[in-house]
Write a structure and sequence with these properties.
Elements lengths: L1 H7 L3 H9 L2 E3 L32 H4 L5 E5 L5 E6 L2 H13 L2 H14 L2 H25 L25 H17 L7 H21 L5 H18 L3 H10 L3 H14 L10 H24 L19 H37 L6 H4 L2 H29 L4
Antiparallel strand pairs: 1-3, 2-3
Length: 398
């Protein structure tokens, strides 16, 4: 068993998967040092960290024009060759499905167009799963795959640790919670829903191997953790949902608990975007939860109805047009809210702590990053659940 686990957490299985899908390094010199540090963590000066990568141009190496380049912070560049573009675009698209931006658009879409209860349950699961996953990374401190032999297609997250894969966790949690929450409410084949959830989560999991960002064990661990959390949370779904809608303490708890968790996030010896990403997720969840509670107090109009049940014959051109109108109107307002709150909060914090708004290092300090991202994205969550529905009603889109 120990030998199997050692193999699954190694870089070679990831490299073999990439080669089998037609992704190859341009040359070993185009990679970066694979020597781990004395503590067994990733080499901060290699592609696994934030340092620069030694690389010659494709022309100097004699490679043709279809040699692609992955670029990251501080000029980190890695050359790679794509021999199978079907897998390349499939897994690049699948990787995008695991990004926070997808869930921040998909979750409001379900709230505006499908069912409030489904959206509430997914947001609950998403917030809990992502917090546990992000914290686990910084507590376990397992390195990501080494490059070489692995080709890394993403550079933003190389400063994070690897275990567990939060992309795998989010994809598994969202797809199966959506399936579980809708299978008894809407008329569609059980097998089709199960297959869709499995395919979605599997594609995102495999994309993390293809992009070279996680080991096999990272991905398996992330999917299993989400599955266990879903099993544990499912019996309490109705109770949690009832408390979120009716408890007079809901707004207070929804704001203070995530703030406490964000301010007490595990500290690292270097900057990692995990704390900021976690604050973004918890902030959005907190704002949405307050919105759920407020809507229930004033009996806000619900979107769910017979015309929007998930039955393909009912998806007429008019229904699709209304759904798209709701989505684009809502997203534009959410983006406007995000821009306004980001500018306002950063301006106030910059004035208070005496730093220019463009100072990236100052914005990474906990006393700045936590309130800036929490206030901004809690405003986004609140707007998506309270103000956007009122706007829809005003525009006659209900």
């Amino acid at each position: 068993m120990s030998r199997l686990l050692g193999t699954l957490c190694g870089s070679q299985p990831v490299a073999r998967f990439q080669r089998s899908c037609g992704l190859f390094p341009a040359s070993e010199e185009g990679g970066c040092s694979s020597e781990p540090s004395a503590e067994g963590a990733r080499d901060r000066g290699a592609c696994n960290g934030a340092g620069a990568l030694r690389s010659l141009s494709a022309t100097d190496r004699g490679f043709p024009n279809w040699v692609r380049s992955g670029r990251g912070p501080k000029g980190c560049t890695q050359k790679y060759i794509v021999k199978n573009y079907f897998y390349y675009y499939l897994f690049k698209f699948s990787a995008a499905l695991g990004e926070e931006i997808f869930y921040i658009t998909f979750l409001p879409f379900t709230y505006w167009n499908i069912d409030h209860s489904v959206s509430r349950r997914m947001i609950i699961v998403w917030s809990i799963v992502m917090y546990i996953g992000q914290v686990s990374k910084d507590l376990l401190k397992w390195p990501r795959p080494l490059s070489p032999p692995v080709v890394k297609l993403e550079m933003r997250t190389v400063a994070e640790y690897g275990m567990p894969s939060t992309h795998a966790m989010a994809a598994t949690a969202i797809s199966f919670s959506f399936f579980i929450a809708t299978m008894n409410q809407y008329k569609y084949p059980f097998e089709l829903g199960l297959a869709a959830a499995f395919v979605f989560s599997t594609l995102v999991c495999l994309s993390r191997l293809y992009t070279g960002m996680h080991t096999v064990l990272d991905v398996i661990g992330g999917a299993l953790i989400s599955a266990v959390l879903l099993v544990l949370l499912y019996p309490a779904w109705d109770t949690i949902d009832h408390l979120l809608l009716t408890s007079p303490f809901c707004p207070l708890v929804s704001i203070t608990l995530p703030l406490v968790l964000c301010y007490n996030y595990p500290k690292l010896d270097f900057y990692s975007p995990t704390r900021g990403d976690t604050t973004t997720i918890l902030g959005a969840g907190a704002g949405a939860t307050v919105g759920f509670w407020l809507n229930n107090q004033f009996a806000a109009a619900a979107y769910a109805g017979d015309g929007f049940q998930l039955r393909l014959p009912l998806l007429t051109s008019r229904v699709v047009a209304v759904m798209l109108a709701r989505f684009f109107v809502g997203i534009l307002f959410v983006l406007l809210t995000r821009w306004l709150m980001k500018s306002l909060v950063l301006g106030v914090l910059g004035y208070h702590y005496k730093f220019p708004v463009a100072d990236l290092e100052a914005r990474r300090r906990p006393e700045v990053e936590v309130p800036y991202k929490f206030i901004t994205y809690s405003s986004v969550g609140f707007s998506a659940t309270v103000i956007v529905p009122l706007l829809h009603q005003l525009l006659g889109l209900l």
